[in-house]
Amino acid sequence: MIEIVITDSMQGEAYVEFVLDSKGSKNIQKAQEFGFDGKGQFFLQEKKTLLVCIDGRHVDFVREAGANIARFFKSLKFGSIGIKAFGDEALDYALMLGILAGWQDSGLYKSNKKEYALSKVYIQGDSALGKVAKRAKIVAKSLYIVRDLVNTMPQVATPTYLLQYCKKLAQKRDLECKVLDTKDLQKERMGAYLAVSRASVNPPYLVHLKYKSKKPLARVVVVGKGLTYDSGGLSLKPSDYMVTMKADKSGACAVIGILNAVAELGLHIEVHGIIGAAENMIGGDAYKPDDVLFSREGKSIEVRNTDAEGRLVLCDCLSYAQDLKPDIIIDLATLTGACVVGLGEYTSGIMGYNEVLKKDFESCALQSGELMACLPFNRHIKKLLESKVADICNIGSSRYGGGISAGMFLGEFIRDEYKDKWLHIDIAGPAYIEREWDINPSGASGAGVRAVLAFIENLESKQDSKKSKSKKA
Ligand code: BES
Ligand code: ZN
Ligand code: ZN
């Protein structure tokens, strides 16, 4: 990672100038003499200055520009650059996060690792920015962790690998780490989860991480779909759709990144991370369409498609999660292609029963820089999950509304007292895109991390002001 240093004077071997109004900048006029059209960025050699045009003082533009600055200087020989701060905390945070998150390379397995000259970014601004820089660094580091894990090939990144990673992280960040192996999952009667993983030579693990704050203001449980590979099972995916299915563990990896961040930030919220790691494979022992599974919540499930496996793992994990008596329960999952068709690749779907909670989460996500939109449940789609042989079917009987029917399937495993406390986030679109976009390199993005963090931090400050109000009263 490159280092960000806050300074009171302009430093660095080269500079960056943000341009909001091209007419007001002398450097832009110079650049125009060289044929610059005033859009995007231009490096003015004689001033060693990268001119960066943005459409306005908006965090989204600044964040993306930050990433593009980092990418640009990869090809030059400067060891350090200097940028003047905006003097606005949100914009300066966006700038720093953009630089750090945009700096990460894809190409984990290239033999010729690129070496870059740039190692320091000086931000000229108030010393109070040091705190902002620290937060940007923690969040960026968490994104790096998630992206590296998700990009790791499925031959290596098995459920055991995720488990070992969690154990190491738990030690480093002083988290509790409880592990449920196959025997434990049997004891817990997690019949749906176990069926999915049965044909794999790599055994499943449910990992339960816990960050215990000293004075917790609330308890949040985050559950992640951790399919280290999704071949589709006997309802085998066509070859073209199987490629990138190493990324079906993105929800679980996001949970790991979130736990890293909350621990480093020292938030006053108790956060549990539940990782449902398994591999969906084929074999003589594979679970089949026509099988009926018995879930931990006691509901029987008719399997009609083994490629709708994520919801089977999650329904048992959500059951376990509710036993922890959470104030909020959020699951993150690359659950459906339908959600990607509906919202596009860059946007995650937010589902649940509590309209206020959904809207609240959406606004936290958008503020954090992640695109998310609410998808509405309805009673007609719920009917599509009816089964003639069991309590529920693992796919809807219509090919439409697949993102919502998957969400409503999960909803059937949420007990009445938790219905209003639960959110399902389908990150199938933005979790993994084979093309660089926004602050993300091609491959894994770390989707879900920023949104959930923003939500938890928002919850922390809401609970905190509630507490101080009740003290006064
Ligand atoms: N892991 C996939 C969903 C997915 C698709 C994630 C594309 C990322 C990108 C999930 O397990 C799956 O296969 N879902 C099926 C459900 C269907 C069988 C009802 C789907 O979306 O096609
Ligand atoms: Zn699947
Ligand atoms: Zn899947």
What do you see in this structure?
One of its GO terms (molecular function) is manganese ion binding. InterPro entries: Leucine_aapep/pepB, Macro_dom-like, Peptidase_M17_C, Peptidase_M17_leu_NH2_pept. One of its GO terms (cellular component) is cytoplasm. By secondary structure, this protein is α/β, with parallel strands linked by helices. It folds into 2 domains: 136 residues, 3-Layer(aba) Sandwich (Leucine Aminopeptidase, subunit E, domain 1); 308 residues, Aminopeptidase, CATH 3.40.630. The protein is built from 15 helices and 19 strands. The strands form 4 sheets. The chain has an 8-stranded mixed sheet with strand order 7-8-10-9-13-17-14-15, with helices on both faces. α12 links the parallel β14 and β15. α3 packs parallel to α4 and α7 runs antiparallel to α10. The longest helix is centred in the C-terminal third of the chain and has 24 residues. The termini are far apart. 50% of the residues are buried. The structure holds ligand BES and zinc ion (2 copies).
